C-alpha cells in the first residue's frame, strides 16, 4: 500500500511549486504522543518532520501525554480533536481486531524482517481495512526498538515459568495486557510516564521497553537485570486523521508524506544506533544482561495466542506470508 502511495505522491511532489488546489491558508497539524519532549524521538519529530514541512504548515506537537492520555489519541482523532499521532498497533485492536496480529510476540524475526514486511504489499489489505474502519491515514511505521524484559530482582528469568507472579508493567489496554500474560508474567497497567515511580516504589517488578526508551526514561537507574527477549520488534503507526488528510491539496499531501518518510528513516537509524551502543553502557553500570531461553518464551507466547479468541480474527494465511518475507 505505502509503496504505491509514495510513488504517486513523489510524482506530485515534483510540482510543489504549482498551485493545484484552492486552499492557501496555513494547515494546522496538532499532534500528541506520550514520549517526553526531551526524548530524541521527540527531537527527531521536530527536526525531520516538523522542520521539513515548511511555512505552509503549522505543526503543533504535544509530548509526554500532556494533551491526551496514552491510548486515547485514536479516539481524539476520530472526534476531530487531534490531527496526528504516533500510535501503537494495540490502539487499533478494539476497533479492528484483525490488526492484533501485528502485536503478537515473536512475529518478526528482527528489524530487517519487520521493515521488509512493512515495505512489502503483505499488509496492504489489513492496513487498508484498519484505515477504513478507524478513519485514519497511515503515513509511516517508525521503528522504536526491540522490547526486552528488565527488572529488579535477585535472579535470572530464563523461561516463562520463572515469570509466574512477576508484576510486569504493560501499557493499559487488553491487547497490551495479553502480551504480558503470553510472556508468563502478571501484567499491571501503568502509564509510560509513571513507570519510573512504579519501579521505584515496588508496585511493579519489571517493565519491557527496549534499550532506547529504558535509557531515555532512566529506568536503567533502577533495574539490575535485563533479559534479551526481543519479544516485540516494535514499530509505531505514524498516522493522520483521514478528514485532515482529505482537506489538503495533493501537493500538501505529498509534502506531509515526504516528511513522514524522513521521520521514519531518522527514527530507524537512531534507534538502531542506540541499540548497538547502550547494551555496553548498561553493562558498565552493573546491569546483568543475558539471553534467556528464547525458544521457550516463543513457544509459550505463540501457543497462548493461537488458543485465544484473538487469533480467530486474524486473516487466514497472513502469518505464513509474513514469515515468508525475506526467506
Distance between the termini: 21 Å
User: Helical region count?
Assistant: 13
Broad shape:
globular
> What is the string of helix and strand elements?
HEHEHEHHHEEEHEHEHEEHHEHH
CATH level-3 fold name of the largest domain: D-Maltodextrin-Binding Protein, domain 2
CATH class group of the largest domain: Alpha Beta
Largest sheet: 5 strands, mixed
Total number of beta strands:
11
Helix coverage percent of residues?
40-55%
Query: What percent strand?
Result: 15-25%
Rounded radius of gyration (Å): 20 Å
Number of separate domains: 2
Class from helix and strand fractions: alpha/beta
What average pLDDT do the residues reach? 92
CATH architecture heading of the largest domain: 3-Layer(aba) Sandwich
Q: Low-confidence stretches at least 5 residues in length (pLDDT < 50)?
A: 3-23
For the largest sheet, list the strands in their spatial order. Answer: 2-1-3-10-4
Kindly report the name of the CATH homologous superfamily of the largest domain: Bacterial extracellular solute-binding protein, family 7
Amino acid at each position: 500500500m505505502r509503496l504505491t502511495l509514495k510513488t504517486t505522491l513523489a510524482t506530485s511532489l515534483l510540482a510543489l511549486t504549482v498551485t493545484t488546489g484552492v486552499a492557501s491558508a496555513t494547515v494546522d497539524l496538532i499532534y500528541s504522543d506520550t514520549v517526553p519532549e526531551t526524548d530524541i524521538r521527540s527531537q527527531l519529530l521536530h527536526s525531520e518532520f516538523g522542520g521539513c514541512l515548511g511555512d505552509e504548515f503549522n505543526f503543533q506537537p504535544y509530548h509526554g501525554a500532556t494533551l491526551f492520555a496514552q491510548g486515547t489519541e485514536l479516539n481524539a482523532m476520530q472526534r476531530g480533536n487531534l490531527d496526528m499521532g504516533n500510535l501503537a498497533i494495540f490502539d487499533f485492536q478494539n476497533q479492528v481486531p484483525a490488526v492484533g496480529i501485528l502485536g503478537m510476540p515473536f512475529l518478526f524475526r528482527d528489524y530487517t524482517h519487520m521493515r521488509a514486511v512493512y515495505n512489502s504489499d503483505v499488509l496492504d489489505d489489513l492496513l487498508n481495512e484498519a484505515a477504513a474502519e478507524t478513519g485514519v491515514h497511515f503515513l509511516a511505521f517508525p521503528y522504536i526498538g526491540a522490547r526486552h524484559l528488565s527488572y529488579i530482582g535477585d535472579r535470572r528469568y530464563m523461561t516463562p515459568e520463572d515469570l509466574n507472579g512477576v508484576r510486569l508493567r504493560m501499557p493499559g489496554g487488553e491487547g497490551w495486557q495479553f502480551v504480558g500474560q503470553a510472556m508468563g508474567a502478571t501484567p499491571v497497567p501503568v502509564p509510560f510516564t509513571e513507570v519510573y515511580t512504579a519501579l521505584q516504589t515496588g508496585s511493579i517488578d519489571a517493565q519491557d521497553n527496549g534499550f532506547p526508551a529504558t535509557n531515555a526514561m532512566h529506568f536503567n537507574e533502577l533495574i539490575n537485570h535485563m533479559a534479551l527477549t526481543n519479544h516485540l520488534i516494535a514499530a509505531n503507526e505514524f498516522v493522520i486523521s483521514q478528514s485532515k488528510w482529505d482537506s489538503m491539496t495533493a501537493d500538501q499531501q505529498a509534502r506531509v508524506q515526504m516528511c513522514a518518510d524522513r521521520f521514519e528513516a531518522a527514527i530507524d537509524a537512531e534507534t538502531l544506533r542506540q541499540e548497538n551502543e547502550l547494551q555496553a553502557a548498561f553493562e558498565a553500570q552493573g546491569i546483568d544482561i543475558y539471553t534467556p531461553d528464547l525458544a521457550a518464551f516463543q513457544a509459550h507466547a505463540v501457543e497462548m495466542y493461537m488458543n485465544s479468541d484473538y487469533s480467530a480474527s486474524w486473516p487466514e494465511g497472513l502469518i505464513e506470508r509474513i514469515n515468508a518475507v525475506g526467506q
